[in-house]
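Input (structure):
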């Protein structure tokens, strides 16, 4: 067997010396331990639920809207909700969180009013 191929396969194996179990691990688990990989998730059930959604999808970071993407208004976030969100991100090691800008932002528009 080719040495490079063996190294790649070995890097995906669990090395539990107590059981000598060499079963393959989930590649998402392997890569998420080295990188921050996430997705855009809904906050429809609240910010703490967004963390759970990110974890359920196998991610360790996330992106959210904090208001309607079709308008300029931003939702108010209560301090208790913010604290619960921070606690969930710490508990599950899901960070950073990126706030997705509104769809109305258009830096390439030739219309000066829209640009401002």
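Output (sequence):
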């Amino acid at each position: 067997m080719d040495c490079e191929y063996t190294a790649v396969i070995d890097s995906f194996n669990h090395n539990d010396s107590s059981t000598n179990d060499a079963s393959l691990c989930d590649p998402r688990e392997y890569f998420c331990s080295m990188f921050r990989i996430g997705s855009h998730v809904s906050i429809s059930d609240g910010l703490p639920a967004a963390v759970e959604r990110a974890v359920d999808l196998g991610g360790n970071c996330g992106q959210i809207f904090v208001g309607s993407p079709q308008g300029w208004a931003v939702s108010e976030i209560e301090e208790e909700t913010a604290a619960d969100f921070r606690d969930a991100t710490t508990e599950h090691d899901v960070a950073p969180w990126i706030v997705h800008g509104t769809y109305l932002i258009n830096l390439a528009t030739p219309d000066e009013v829209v640009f401002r």
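Notes: Residues 50 and 63 are 9 Å apart (CA to CA). Residues 1-35 form one domain.
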